[in-house]
Structure formats: C-alpha cells, structure tokens
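Suppose you are handed a protein chain with no further information: no name, no annotation, nothing but its sequence. What can you learn? This example shows the usual starting point.
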Amino acid sequence: MGTMLLRVGLSVQCLRPSLAQFLPKQTPITKLSYRPLCISSSSSISTLVSNSSKHSTSTFNGSLEPYLSCCMPHKRLKLAVLLSGGVDSSVALRLLHAAGHHCTAFYLKIWFQEDFENFWSECPWEEDLKYAKAVCDQVDVPLEVVHLTDEYWNNVVSYIIKEYRCGRTPNPDVLCNTRIKFGAFMDAVSSMEFDYVASGHYANIIHSSSDEKDKPSVLELSKDMVKDQTYFLSHLLQAQIKRLIFPLGRIPKDEVRELAKRFDLPNKDRKDSQGICFLGKIKFSEFVARQIGEMEGIILEAETGDFLGKHKGFWFYTIGQRQGLRLPGGPWYVVEKDVKNNVVFVSRNYFSFDKRRRLFRVGSMRWLGGLPPENFSHLRCKVRHGPGFYDCSLTMEHHDDGRGDVAVVHLSKDDQGIAAGQFAAFYQGQTCIGSGVILESWDDQGFPVCARALEIARMEDKSKLGKPVKIYFKPETPSSDSDCKDSSKVDRGLTSSQVSAMNRSVSC
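A reasonable first move is to predict its three-dimensional structure. Written in structure tokens, the prediction is:
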C-alpha cells in the first residue's frame, strides 16, 4: 500500500485532487474512511470523541502569550501539524491555533496490524486516532490521515533488520524523523503549499529573518534538558529544518502538562508513549524474532572463556546491555558480540578502570548547516538520548573508497555504552550542528576478550562444551588480575575451575 491521505470522517470524494494519486485503486473505499477498524474495549474514548465538540477555549484561564514564543505569533501561517494523539503534539496544536495560524492536523498511520494481529486484542492505533480527532474537534481543526506503512517499512524497518543482522544497533527514532515524519510526509503534502510543518518535539528552531533567507536555520536545545529531542533530530537536512516549527521548544514538560489541563484536552491525563513508534504494545524482541528468527548460540565470559549459558541470537543483544541476560551472580553486561559465530561475550567488569573507552569513529556525517564547523576542538557530544553531554574533539579522516568522511571522536570522559549503529550528535554551545553513525570499534578500543574465549567462540561443535559452569557471586574486593587482557595475548592455561577459584567466592 503506497502513501495515502484522507480526511477523517469523509469519503474518498473529499480528498484533495492533488493527493488522490496516493490512493491505491485496489483498496476498498470503506476501509479508508475514519471508522473503528476493530472493536475498542475503551468505551470512555468513544464517549470522549462524541462529546469533544462541547469543549472550547473558554475553559482556559490566563494569558497564553508567554508560551507562544516558538509559534511565530505575529504572522498568519498555513501549517501542517503532526498529531499523534499524545499530550505533547496536542498542546503544540492548541498553541499554534491560539497564535492565529490556519492549522490542518495530520495523523501518520504506519502500523503493521496485518502482520501482528495475534499480538493484541484491539487496534493499536485506533485509540491514538480517536484522541487526535477529539483534540481537533475542540477547535474545529481538520484532521487527515496519511498512510505511510510502505514508506516506513522500506526506509526504516528494513534498515533496522539489516543492521541487526550485522550485529549493529540502529536508532529507529532518528531514522523515523529523517525519512518519514519530515521526509515522506513532507513529500506527501508538498503540493498543499504549507508554510511550515509543526510537531510536538522538544527542540527549538531559530529561523533567519525574511531579509536573510540565505542564512541557515539553527536547531537549538530545548529548555527541558531531560525531554530534549535534538539527538533524534540531529541527522536532518537543512532543507528539512527550514520548514519546521516546534512550539514546545521553550516550555518545560511539567508546564506542557499544565497547559493540557488548562486547555481541558481530552488526553490531558494520558501517559507518554514509550518504545518504538510503529510497535506500540509489541516488545521489540518479539518484532525482531518475527523478522529475523531465532538461532541458538552461547554466552561466554569475556575474561575467562567460561561457558555461562545459551541465547536465541546475537541480534537480541546490544553492547552495554544489562537486562535480559538472566545470569546469576551479576550484574552482567554484554561487552562484545561475535556475529559470524553467533556468540555473546559478557562481563561483570564492564566499568573497571582498564576497560574505559574515550575514542570511537563516526561515519555518514551530516552537518545541519550544510558545512562542517570551522573548529573541531571544542565541541560537545551526545551518544544517546538524554540530558548527558561529553566535551569532545573531532579529527576528520577522508576516505577515497566510497565511505566519505569519517570522524574520530575523542571524549573527555569514559563511556562504556558506545554501540555501533547508534548516532553520535555534536553541539556547539546550545546549537546542535550535526551527527553521524557510530562505526565498529577499532581492534584496540573494544572490550578485551581473552584468547581462550575467542577460541571457544570459533569451535564448530559447541555441544562439546557440556553444561554451563556454575556462577558464583563476585567478591566485593578486587581479584588479582591474572586472566588475559586482550585478544592478542595467549591464554595462560588456567582451567575454568582455577579461574573460578581465583575470581569467585560465595556460592549463589
């Protein structure tokens, strides 16, 4: 099914002629109108939708002026507003409407309900769409649905699957923003001549004045550093940023919640969504198992080569992962993966002094202003979503083999959770200047897996390993550093029982 756009509650005849091309001819019209596609168990939501027109802005007390600084309140704009059914995008819509703009709301449908119908008892996106419609009905804003299932699968999900097969850990949220929300969606509505596209992201965009149109637009940190989403927006193109408005860029999350109550939004008490947007209530491990399958492999201790247990596929694990290992005597952390032999290496010494990492490589560099910064020495870096930064410097390398520019990143402090496939975002002060994809570690920068562990990983018949060793609790005092330190050194001949005797004490 290709890109489709329709107005909620209207038949296909009400579609704009320029968008009718996105409708597949073989799809029955009755399936495109807004109506329950499966029975909802929440009758309160249905009541909400039918009664939403009774609410109005008259319930709002107090001036909105302090909250409109990111809404261009002194202009009258034609805006396309992405609406998810959550609180953030709903408040963003109401602020833009209060600023006097002509708004049209859009709900992006990217669910794979046909493939996962056995995983849920009700439509995973029907509830979101009902809330979105209720919010729009309060102020008579039209709501349209854009079907981007195929685009999401081809540009995001297939990439995720490919990366997991290769042992890397991609970031779906960065790809969704770049390729879908502000990519395929912008293409779908390009003929409708909107001035800007708006959403409920926590980030701030500074546009140049009308007499300085050639100057690039700037992506700045949100006022709420915990909710700040510049990391997820760091791989956008300048052409995309120039068309965006983020009304919540200077509003803390707690004030957004307060605004939702003062607006009397139907979803004012709704919890924030968690996880990957196209999965909803499905666990990511279930999705990966459905797409890639399962293949039994072994778990080895990185320092000793001890056989600790089995797993269902290296693609279910990422470097730094602690949850889901189900090994006693921990905490245990995933420190390396052998993709070829389907082996996961773990350690309880993930944060020890000699395992620190301050150096990694980043490729697929993209600079939001179009050009790299003049000075690479005094930057800040995020290697994951969250309020934490590192001071850093970059050393650029140019490759003639088609890989383009690669940046060597030098962090000011140690970080143990750097995973290939994730993004590293870079900042100058409050400004996000770009990002790149974290590449595989250099051989001397990865976690030191000993030669014995590597040899066992290469064994063709791993049934000879027998049963996993019994794991004991790690002693509180540091043990003697007698096991091998990196993959270049030979094993010192210690047996599993000898290593256990030296490194473990109290029984589980």
